[in-house]
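Troubleshooting: if your tokenizer reports a length mismatch, compare your output against this known-good record of 306 residues.
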Amino acid sequence: MRTEQLEYIAAVTRLGSLRRAADELRLSQPALSETVRNLERELGVDLLERKRTGATMSAAGQELLPRIVEVLEAVDRLRVAAGEQHRISRMVRVGTVNAATVPLLVPVLRDFRATHPVTQVEVVGAQQAEIHRGLAEGGFDLGLVNHLDGDDVPAGFEATELLRGRPVVCVRPDSPLAGLAEVSVDDLLTVPLIAMRTGYVMHRYVHRLLADRTPVFSYSTDGAEMGKLMVAEGLGATVLPDFSVVGDPLERAGTIVCRPLAGDATGVVLTLQRRRAEAVPQAARDLLETFVHRARALGGTVAQRP
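Known-good structure output:
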């Protein structure tokens, strides 16, 4: 068994595709596939499930993944101790629902790069279900996920609560709603509504808030960042967690503002989730700590959720 075999299987798991892993590792796909099969024959288990849509970790592979990570981390420590240059830079993959990215994520990435200059961070926007699937299969190391108060963390995951907030109405400063101290549901129904697509927490929240009442016109978009841009262009209003709006570059520039919802005390929680496993890559642990530090600086109450 060679360490590069373990690095290759880790790359296939992270990227979800033999082709993408081969491209990143600068190998031919047949050569990579044969190397993985040799490792599977040596271990006596099928590490991957190969499908037309890509390769994912098998159940047996998921059980062995923490051990593979342990070996790769040990090799990294050995290289550092020997003063050798890292042959392969580690990558941390973060899945995020877009409703929480800019005010928190951008400063975190800046802080993390200052202390980990050779570690790449790949940020992937996705819906909550996709993030949970990526965490379970090893494609994501960490996941930024929003929850409404009372939602449970799925089995098999650990969640660190980063920020707590309330839903707010996000509008342009020249919107009639911007002149209100708080926005009622009746007020919200008088303007075009920019809603999140099905699968986002804020879609579920707005559907419950409106109770089947219909706004004058509605758009549907994939993620809060596009929603805020549409608001800035004057297309209507959207409902987001306050921590997604306050501190956003558009809010700092005065292009968008937010107003509280009248008579609503719903809480929204931003959590950083990871798969409950025996071994977690050091870079992912360091990035998690950077998130915690930045969340505290923003006034968040950091807590562990089972």
